[in-house]
């Protein structure tokens, strides 16, 4: 297939170029190039964000970790600042895919793609993050809209993600060994704002396990999380595991996350 390629030098130019119906932003290409090769996407124009150095980098200030959209998974995994502020976030980044994926893939691409088994959406929802774009700031609770769907509008560019620093947090990933994605992944956090439990890999998109949040809100313990019987209704069944198996994994992994936090 053929497509036009451009590498804008400002976010505004990238947003303008991406606003066309057949244009696609490209970051690390770790999801988009695969989709193009499989014939699942056939953009007429690729707008490469690679030259936008403003979109790279990590800052920790005012109780928040802010990560530029073009920051790679490897950079987050290796960041001493992230490891000190939210170790669970560095841990999550360090276990995404393999070395190549971590060195090319970006947090903005992962969140925009919203694969139903992706890791970062669970951290965003599990920490109550805010996604910043060239147009606005969107709470994670309003951002993820189900299978590969987000609140992003046409040509809207994610510029950064800010994560409030919790009192405690942990990530538990039950990996599907062939794909390296989560069969089920659970991100748990506790802060003055309350307990958040986010689940990826189990359903049509990332979601909060509100029954486990309620149980942990009154009793922060492994037993309280593991004791919640999660409904299998609406969860995925495939050759790797049934909906009932995934439902059982959610409370088991939430319990392990509480122990690890
Ligand atoms: C073998 C393999 C294993 C993997 N394992 C895991 C895993 O275990 N866990 C996991 O979470 N992920 C996994 N991934 C996916 C990986 O994390 C990707 O890096 C990520 O999904 C996409 O990031 P990217 O930068 O490559 O985005 P791209 O592929 O370049 O883009 C993905 C989508 O996001 C859009 N986009 C990119 N950047 C922006 C932006 N700033 N603003 C708005 N839209 C944007 C693009 O238009 C496109 O639609 C795996 C991938 C592979 C190939």
Biggest β-sheet: count, sense, barrel?
Answer: 5 strands, antiparallel
Radius of gyration: 18 Å
Poorly predicted regions are: none
As an assembly, this protein is single chain
Overall 3D form: globular
Ends: how far apart? 48 Å
What is the mean predicted local confidence, pLDDT? 96
Strand order of the largest sheet: 4-5-8-6-7
Helix content: 25-40%
Extended strand count:
12
Class derived from helix and strand content: alpha+beta
Strand percentage: 15-25%
* Count of separate DSSP helical elements: 12
Q: Short description, anyone?
A:
This protein has 261 residues and is an alpha+beta fold. It is built from 12 helices and 12 strands.
Polypeptide structure, described:
It is a single chain. The protein is an alpha+beta fold and 261 residues long. The chain has helices spanning 11-18, 32-37, 73-78, 80-85, 87-94, 99-104, 107-113, 120-127, 140-143, 210-218, 222-226, 243-260; strands at residues 4-6, 23-26, 45-48, 58-61, 64-68, 130-133, 137-139, 158-164, 168-175, 182-191, 194-200, 207-208. The strands form three sheets. Strands 4-5-8-6-7 form a five-stranded antiparallel sheet. A four-stranded antiparallel sheet has the order 9-10-11-12, with helices on both faces. Strands 1-3-2 form a three-stranded parallel sheet, covered by helices on one side. A hairpin with a 6-residue loop joins β9 and β10. The longest helix is centred in the last third of the chain and has 18 residues, at 243-260. The mean pLDDT is 96. It binds flavin-adenine dinucleotide. Flavin-adenine dinucleotide binds next to β2, α2, α6 and α7. Flavin-adenine dinucleotide is lined by residues 24-32, 34, 49, 69, 96-97, 101, 104-106, 108-110, 112-113, 115, 118-120, 152, 157-158, 180-181.
